[in-house]
Every structure is written in structure tokens, then in C-alpha cells.
Amino acid sequence: MIYTVTVNPALDYVLQLEKVNDGETNRSSDTQFLAGGKGINVSQILNQLGVENTAWGFVGGFTGEELIRQLNVKQINSDFVRISDTTRVNVKIHAQQETEINAAGPKITDQEVAAFKARLDDLKPGDVVVISGSLAPSLPTDFYESLLPTIREKGAEFVVDTTGEALLRTLKFHPLVIKPNHHELADLFHTEFKSTNDMLQAAKKLLDQGAQNVMISMAGEGAYLVTPDHIYHANAAKGVAVNSVGAGDSMIAGFVGTWFETHDAAEGLRVGSACGGATAFTEDIAVKSQIDVVLPQIKIDVVE
Ligand SMILES: Nc1ncnc2c1ncn2[C@@H]1O[C@H](COP(=O)(O)OP(=O)(O)OP(=O)(O)O)[C@@H](O)[C@H]1O
Ligand SMILES: O=P(O)(O)OC[C@@]1(O)O[C@H](CO)[C@@H](O)[C@@H]1O
Question: Which residues form the Carbohydrate kinase PfkB domain (predicted)?
């Protein structure tokens, strides 16, 4: 089983309008409330790929009820811990440019945290836990790290979609894959890459520090996958990018879902690239028909 973890999910309130004029009353032409949060996006793509998964995390209040209602409509299995505070609303303004206002999130009590940690008792060898998104403000900054010893003791694999020091601290637990984009990878080494080779050498250092696979995403420029045996390159699909949100979540979902079923990392890169591209080409998270259009465009080359 794959479990996704979204400790701070959101209802994304998406407002469409032609232009935002600062300091004036602006009126939107269309609005939507969408179940959001990075782990939930991973679950959505896994569902589209037909890979069984369960979404874990914390939800509460009227927004939490709506979020669960939407997951049920989309037939996404979930087992969220119910909290007494209210799930956040994140505002996404789609106008002449995309502007996001992500709220901090609810207070989560010690009792609610304990109920969440008890979920990990269900893990079995071979399961994969994908942890994504920001922490709710009341959780300690090492919350994700604190889950990793139990996950590994249970024989499960994990992915933590994070950046910077928090990402580096996960490496000693041997994440199945890490997916910095090329800017985040350079930031990890406090540098700017002068060449592709510099970038790939940096990824190899992360393998040495414990990652099982390193996927470097480069938006419309494609992606690399660095494994202990090979380096693979995937081209980017051709299309009009209309959405800058969720391509990374979709790529991780495509990789993890494929790896879970085949243990073929290069195929994971191919499917992950298609899912990332398909989401970039749509307003929401991509659905299967959109992924199927993009998949034949992705070619994998063995670089090394
Ligand atoms: N404009 C695009 N055209 C084609 N493929 C794209 C495009 N944007 C993203 N992708 C695909 O999705 C993958 C992940 O995108 P990206 O590198 O933007 O991740 P990210 O920085 O984590 O994104 P986000 O923050 O939006 O989730 C890319 O490596 C690529 O395969
Ligand atoms: O505040 P976080 O947890 O970093 O990101 C939350 C979020 O922006 O991520 C998703 C897109 O990736 C959205 O559905 C959601 O609103």
C-alpha cells in the first residue's frame, strides 16, 4: 500500500479574474473550492494511475468536512485524524499572473498527534509513505523526521518532499527518492551550477549521503534521475503550461506509483515526467486521459 501524508491540507479557493488592481474591489468571473495539499495531490494522481493508496493527515471543521466530501466523490481512500480546529483555506488567484496566499493552518493537539502516529502501526514491509507539504504551525519542525525511524523499522519506504536542511536530515534514513528541482539542488550546496555535469555530481553526493534515487526536475527542460547504477534523462513533453502548481507532486506520484508496481526506477522517471507535464498543461491536477496523451512523448536516455 502507498500512504500519502498531508499534515496541513487545505481547501484551495481558486479565483479566476482577468486582472487584479491593488487597493481596489476586484470581482472574479469564476471561483472553485478544491481539495488541496501536496500529499492529497499525490493521492489524486495515484488514483488516476490505478495505484491503490490511502491519504493520511489531519482535518477539522467545516472545511475539513468539505475536503473529505470531495475526496469521497473522487474515490480517494482516506483515514484522516479528526481535529478540533479548522482546516485552512488557501487562496489561489489566477489573473494576469498566479498569486497564492497559503494560510498557516490549524492547531493540532498532542492527543491528535498521538492518534496520527498510531496510524504508522499499520505499516507493512514494502509499503511506501509519501510525506508532502508544509507543517501545521503547532507541529515541531522535526515532525517529519520523527516519523522516519518507525517507518523504517516497519520495513516501509518513504519519500519526504521537502527542501533545504529538512531534506538533508532525511537522508540518513535512506529515502526511496528525493526530488529537488534544479534550483533547490543548487541551494542545497549553496552554489550555482555552471554545467549539467556539476548538477549531476551534486546529485551523486546526495546518493552518497543516503538517498536511494535522486530525481532532478527542471520544469519545461525535463528531468534527470540519478541512481546508484545509472543516470537517466527524460525530455519534457510539449504543451502550453497553464498551471505552475502541482507538477512536482504529480511527478513524485508517477515515480512512486510506478516504482511500487514494477521496481523500475527509469520507468518511474518516464511516468513521473508525463504526470508532471500533464498537470502543468491543465488548470487542476491531471487526470488519466491527459496523462495518456503526454506519456508517449517522453523518451528516456541512459546518460551514464
Ligand atoms: N512546462 C512544462 N512542460 C513540460 N513538462 C513540464 C513542465 N513543467 C513541469 N513539467 C514536468 O513536471 C516535472 C516537475 O516540474 P517542476 O520541475 O516544475 O517541479 P517543481 O519545481 O517541484 O514544481 P511545483 O512547485 O510546481 O510542484 C518536470 O521535470 C517535467 O517533467
Ligand atoms: O502550504 P504548502 O503545504 O506548502 O502547500 C499547499 C499547497 O499550495 O500545495 C498544493 C499544490 O502543490 C495546493 O493544493 C496547496 O494549497
Answer: 16-280
